[in-house]
Write a structure and sequence with these properties.
- It holds the Pfam family AbiEii.
- This protein has ten helices and seven strands.
- The chain is of the alpha+beta class and about 220 residues long.
- It has two domains: about 120 residues, Beta Polymerase, domain 2, CATH 3.30.460; about 100 residues.
- The strands form two sheets. The chain has a five-stranded mixed beta sheet.
- Strand 4 and strand 5 form a beta hairpin.
Amino acid sequence: MSSPTDDSRKTKAIRSCVERLRSRLKDRFILIGGASMLLLGSQRATNDVDILVPSDEDVPALVSFLAADKSFSNEGGHLQFQHPDFSPSLDILTIAVERMTFEQAHPHCLTIKEVKVPRPDYSLAMKVQCFYLRQDDENGEKKRASDLRDIEFLLSEMVKRSEFFGHYHLLELRQELGAEHFIRVGGRKFMLPWDQNSEAQKESGADPFTVELEEE
């Protein structure tokens, strides 16, 4: 488990990496993943920086462009940001969570310190999908734990912003968090009332607040 000091160093390095990307790429990327959580106000440290670029972007050329900057190193096409405290890896994506593109995400972004990040509701949709896509192995379970921390943070942010989200695939998340904790972090407040969901949404899964669970 990392110490608060380690987390602080990682966070400092991540922020420096994002600032350098903004300087070099301007608005040609959307910051996603754990690094985007930091810009939204999360305190969870992360080990890498994920960016989503336009579908027609020449990724190998972009890797070469960034590697020409002394702030980045390139080991076999794998980019790392060079920082004295911590060197996060950089992943450049044209598709996120299996099918989401830059063009699809762009209308649902905020700009924070001149960097585009998905809005909390859109980030939550991405995190829910990531949670379900994780592999059933030790690394997958570790990733799920990080997903849950981000989901808790996003729920809290949405409650602060009085934002709502009509996604009806949260039964498993309630199972993982426990009903009491799920409600405490704001789960009920951000959900649309059952009767306001479409018929398709109702058919996609049971109401996560009324269905009986085997273990609570």
